[in-house]
Automatic annotation (TrEMBL):
This is ABC transporter permease. Its main location: membrane. The chain crosses the membrane at residues 69-92, 104-123, 129-147, 178-208, 228-253. Keywords: Cell membrane, Membrane, Transmembrane, Transmembrane helix, Transport. It is found in: Cell membrane. It is a multi-pass membrane protein. Gene3D superfamilies: MetI-like (1.10.3720.10). Belongs to the binding-protein-dependent transport system permease family.
């Protein structure tokens, strides 16, 4: 295991553990307000201090990890399922099905991802569900193109030709031979897309279009801290660092998995 993959696993594991821990324990209730304790500095009672409403920052960060993880898993999972299926269909059928699928993917990718997500959530209304849908739509063409390109190379292999000569239909070959051979590439890409989904969720929440109050979100914590930068700058530092470390871990994990699943001749050296 190279160091890039190891560090990615450690940072991503910390994110997952924080999200799981928030279900069973937080230092305080994440929505408990105490106006007499507002804007306290980090100390023994509140490890990372309190916000403008007296809410404990540690509790907010832990529950915010849960929100980010939930949106990322749902959005990337939906994008992987739909996009991967379309890519496999295009590679199996070829012809007009392939051309139509790839042109639709090109059309979707022509629009800026974040602006498209903002547009979709603005039209459908703010909320976690609409944020998941908007981010998933952006992931579909990415996985469709990757699955189609990877599957097309597998279809030219001799063992696939032998399977066709034995009478297996295209769908059976796709399930038994194509999908297992491209699963590693899709998983590696899913990790990288997870990082982008986390950033998109934070941006949408920062703009008030993502996770809604009283559910904490790292992006909304940044938004609320913006007006208090001169009074309590650490309120912006903590969620910003959390987002940066989570995205770094997911990107390193994706790069490490990509190196691990790449052919030996194409694998990059460990970081």
């Amino acid at each position: 295991m190279n160091r890039r993959l190891l560090l990615g696993l450690m940072l991503t594991g910390t994110l997952v553990l924080a999200a799981l821990l928030s279900w069973v324990w937080t230092p305080y209730a994440f929505d408990a307000m105490a106006i007499d304790s507002r804007l306290q500095a980090p100390g023994a009672r509140h490890w990372l201090g309190t916000d403008a409403y007296g809410r404990d920052v540690v509790s907010q960060l832990l529950v915010g990890a849960r929100s980010s993880l939930a949106v990322g898993v749902a959005a990337v999972g939906l994008g992987l399922l739909l996009g991967g299926s379309l890519g496999l269909l295009a590679a199996a059928r070829r012809g007009w099905v392939d051309q139509l699928t790839m042109r639709l993917a090109d059309f979707t990718l022509a629009f800026p991802a974040l602006l498209t997500a903002i547009l979709l959530t603005a039209v459908r209304g703010p909320g976690m569900g609409n944020a998941v849908l908007a981010i998933a739509v952006l992931n579909v063409p990415v996985f469709a193109r990757l699955a189609r390109a990877s599957a097309a190379g597998i279809w030219a292999q001799n063992y696939v030709l032998a399977a066709r000569a034995c009478g297996k239909n295209r769908w059976r070959i796709t399930w038994e031979h194509i999908l297992p051979n491209i699963a590693g590439v899709l998983i590696a890409q899913a990790s990288s897309q997870f990082a982008l989904a986390l950033l998109a969720e934070a941006a949408l929440s920062y703009l008030g279009l993502g996770v809604q109050a009283p559910q904490p979100s790292w992006g909304r914590m940044l938004s609320e801290a913006q007006s208090l930068l001169y009074q309590a700058p650490l309120l912006a530092v903590f969620p910003g660092v959390a987002i940066a470390l989570a995205v770094l871990g997911l990107n390193l994990l994706g790069e490490g998995l990509r190196d691990r699943f790449a052919p030996p001749a194409q694998a990059r050296s460990a970081w």
